[in-house]
């Protein structure tokens, strides 16, 4: 058996190639939109991709199943469990195969057996993997977003991201039941999850790439709780605010992600065009660092620094129904990586790009306010905390107003237009993004609390708890 894990670091997302070396047949489980990587890996191993399996309808990235199927002709194996409104809408595709659980999918000598594991989502499946050339018993379980290393999939996304009222409690109880079945499995079974540390699909996912059933029984907090009500309380408490784009991903992945084909690079535009585009209402995304943006930017542009969290924050503040223009450093690596990350969450309407020279004489500034100076002379300013609720509960500045960054665009009317605004987060990165959103929406003056809450505490200033 050939087993290979692919890992998308910005999304903390894992997908898998499982192949039979005797027959040359291979399966891909939970592919993202970058189909080239799977095709290239299969070709390097002289294998052909014959099947694609999804554990569930993903919320954090755009599924690559349709993309990969269109490129390879492989069948798509999709869950047909759960309520009708959360079943795949492209099950009538001639390459789609519906799964109820209990089927055996043969890939040469390899056998995949789907088993319903609802909780994170109602239609969730996990897949037992058996290497038939070595044993008649499974060697591991592809758990998707059911069981992670040290954590379990959050059961609140349908309610928080898609606004399905009352679904969190139902999902948490379904997850508890699924975990009781998991605890009955043999300790030696390997656990291959779909996410690692940093994913918003859990609240404390470990960075180790895989685990075993036995180890998770010993250390995973969720498997140590025997009372259902206590499990529900802990499973729902402290979950981070889902990025704003999760609702779009759930809908697109359910109904059928658009087939993109190969990602083409946008055209470079003349640097003098950007101010006019902004005046005409275009979305300009400045991917430079927060420090560079604060020092000088095109008024009306949005700052989403190109780093490990770019896709998450881009999906939080960028629209899906308007053309986007980029300001990027580096036409090769910078532009290519920006396009890859935008494509991974379905932000495909990139109409052009320009280099950093386009902002050399920019007039926009975001003043950086030292925490001690603000503590002494910040009266009259509206202090906006854009961290998460759990961070706020751990400590916050007295007098601050909490609006988590994923909620800012929907709650702009809560930010006054007649007072100076100072934005803060934990360290200063999210607050720079928030400051650019506020400025682009007519709030001014806007400043950033340098170093955020961490700097506030480091300077010995009082924090409320």
Intertermini distance: 54 Å
Which radius of gyration do the C-alpha atoms yield? 23 Å
The CATH homologous superfamily of the largest domain is named Ribonuclease Z/Hydroxyacylglutathione hydrolase-like
Overall helicity: 25-40%
CATH architecture label of the largest domain: 4-Layer Sandwich
* Poorly predicted regions: none
Report the portion of residues in β strands.
15-25%
Arithmetic mean pLDDT: 95
- Give the number of helices: 15
Strand order of the largest sheet: 1-2-3-4-5-6
Structural class: alpha/beta
In total, the number of domains comes to 3
* Biggest pleated sheet: 6 strands, mixed
Structure description:
This protein is of the alpha/beta class. The longest helix has 16 residues, at 167-182. It has 15 helices and 21 strands. The protein is globular and about 70 Å long. The strands form four sheets. It has a six-stranded mixed sheet with strand order 1-2-3-4-5-6, covered by helices on one side. Strand 20, helix 14 (429-440) and strand 21 form a beta-alpha-beta unit. The N and C termini lie far apart (54 Å). The mean pLDDT is 95.
What's this, in brief?
With 465 residues, the chain is an alpha/beta fold. It has 15 helices and 21 strands. Helix content is 28%, strand content 20%.
């Amino acid at each position: 058996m050939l087993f290979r894990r692919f890992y998308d670091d910005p999304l903390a997302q894992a997908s898998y190639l499982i192949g039979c070396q005797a027959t040359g047949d291979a399966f891909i489980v939970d592919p993202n939109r970058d189909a080239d990587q799977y095709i290239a890996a299969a070709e390097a191993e002289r294998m052909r991709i014959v099947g694609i399996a999804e554990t569930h309808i993903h919320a954090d990235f755009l599924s690559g199943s349709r993309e990969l199927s269109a490129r390879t002709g492989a069948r798509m194996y999709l869950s047909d469990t759960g309520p009708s409104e959360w079943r795949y809408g492209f099950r009538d595709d001639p390459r789609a195969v519906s799964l109820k659980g209990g089927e055996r999918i043969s890939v040469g000598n390899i056998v995949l057996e789907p088993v319903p594991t609802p909780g994170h989502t109602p239609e969730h499946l996990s897949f037992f993997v058996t290497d038939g050339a070595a044993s008649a018993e499974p060697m591991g379980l592809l758990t998707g977003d059911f069981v992670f290393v040290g954590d379990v999939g959050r059961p609140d996304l349908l309610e928080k991201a898609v606004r399905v009222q009352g679904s969190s409690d139902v999902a948490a109880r379904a997850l508890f039941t699924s975990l009781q079945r998991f605890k009955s499995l043999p300790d030696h079974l390997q656990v291959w999850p779909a996410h690692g540390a940093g994913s918003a699909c859990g609240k404390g996912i470990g960075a180790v790439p895989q685990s075993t059933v036995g180890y998770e029984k010993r250390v995973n907090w969720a498997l140590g709780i025997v009372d259902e009500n206590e499990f529900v309380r802990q499973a729902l408490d402290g979950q981070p605010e889902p990025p704003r784009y999760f609702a779009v991903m759930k809908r697109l992945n359910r109904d059928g992600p658009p087939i993109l084909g190969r990602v083409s690079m946008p055209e470079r535009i003349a640097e003098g065009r950007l101010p006019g585009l902004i005046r005409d209402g275009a979305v300009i995304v400045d991917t430079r660092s927060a420090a560079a943006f604060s020092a000088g930017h095109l008024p009306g542009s949005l700052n989403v620094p190109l780093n490990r969290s770019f896709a998450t924050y881009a999906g939080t503040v960028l629209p899906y129904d308007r053309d986007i223009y980029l300001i990027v450093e580096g036409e090769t690596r910078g532009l290519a990586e920006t396009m890859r990350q935008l494509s991974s969450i379905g932000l495909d309407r990139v109409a052009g790009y320009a280099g950093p020279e386009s902002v050399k004489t920019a007039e926009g500034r975001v003043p950086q306010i030292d925490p001690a100076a603000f503590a002494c002379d910040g009266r009259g300013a509206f202090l906006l905390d854009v961290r998460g609720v759990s961070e706020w509960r751990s400590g916050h500045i007295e007098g601050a107003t909490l609006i988590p960054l994923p909620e800012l665009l929907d709650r702009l009317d809560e930010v006054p237009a007649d007072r100076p605004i100072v934005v803060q987060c934990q360290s200063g990165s999210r607050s720079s993004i928030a400051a650019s959103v506020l400025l682009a929406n007519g709030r001014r003056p806007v400043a950033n609390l340098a170093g955020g809450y961490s700097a506030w505490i480091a300077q010995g200033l009082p924090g409320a708890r």
